[in-house]
């Protein structure tokens, strides 16, 4: 059970780091967080190929948890290159990012496929971190709410399991541009209202997009923001540590 001040801080390493880099990262990061036990739920999402390696270190240290960056929409079979929910769980992860805007953009993932992925994740005991967010054009056209509502429709009528939602405006990812905390809180409230209608009443809603050690605290102060999904600034253990300790 999360306490009021407990937040969820997720590192999305994307397609970065070789195994040697991951090892060095973990040495530094574990040493730092071991000194000061955090209330926050810390989740590292490496590439699939490093899941087992990172999970072993997570088990040893019990200081953080592990997530994958994607999972297949099918259970198993002739899907060359895909990685199933069962494989991810077997590798020691407990979370999986689903519907990240880079998957939507470069792999044309639509609501039908994303629902299959969410179902597979839940079926295999993984907590989906479901990403939503509008493009700059959609925002300028005043369509943020409609876009997010359409993306969240994937989560209607889920039978069981914990889920986390991450609001990541596409225009804020990797650009250094960030919305105001007030704007984010407004969207988070709208997301919470939509999720409530689906019966998902205690879902944590994270913010993601150009989070840095300098702006993390301002987001974490808002009670409507349940945590952070961090890309670029999570690639350096010192900078991610500064975010976790914000
Ligand atoms: P960023 O990426 O922190 O580099 O903007 C966030 C994300 O894509 O999850």
Short description:
The chain is built from 10 helices and 8 strands.
Written description of the protein model:
By secondary structure, this protein is of the alpha/beta class. The chain has ten helices and eight strands. Strands 1-2-3-4-5-6-7-8 form an eight-stranded parallel barrel, surrounded by five helices. The two termini are 21 Å apart. The model has no long low-confidence stretch (mean pLDDT 95). 2-phosphoglycolic acid is lined by residues 12, 168, 173-174, 208-211, 229-233.
List the helices and strands and how they pair.
Blueprint: E1 8-12, H1 19-35, E2 41-45, H2 51-61, E3 65-68, H3 85-90, E4 95-98, H4 101-106, H5 111-123, E5 127-132, H6 136-140, H7 144-152, E6 164-167, H8 181-197, E7 204-208, H9 216-220, E8 227-230, H10 237-244
Helix pairs in contact: 1-2, 1-10, 7-8
This protein binds 2-phosphoglycolic acid.
> How many DSSP-defined strands?
8
Largest sheet: 8 strands, parallel, barrel
Strand content: 15-25%
Bound molecules: 2-phosphoglycolic acid
Question: What distance separates the N and C termini?
Answer: 21 Å
Low-confidence stretches: none
What oligomeric arrangement do these chains adopt? single chain
**C-alpha-based Rg, rounded:** 17 Å
Strand arrangement across the biggest beta sheet: 1-2-3-4-5-6-7-8
Q: Give the helix tally.
A: 10
Order of H and E elements: EHEHEHEHHEHHEHEHEH
Categorize the overall geometry: globular
User: Structural class of the helix and strand makeup?
Assistant: alpha/beta
Helix percentage range: 25-40%
The average pLDDT score comes to 95
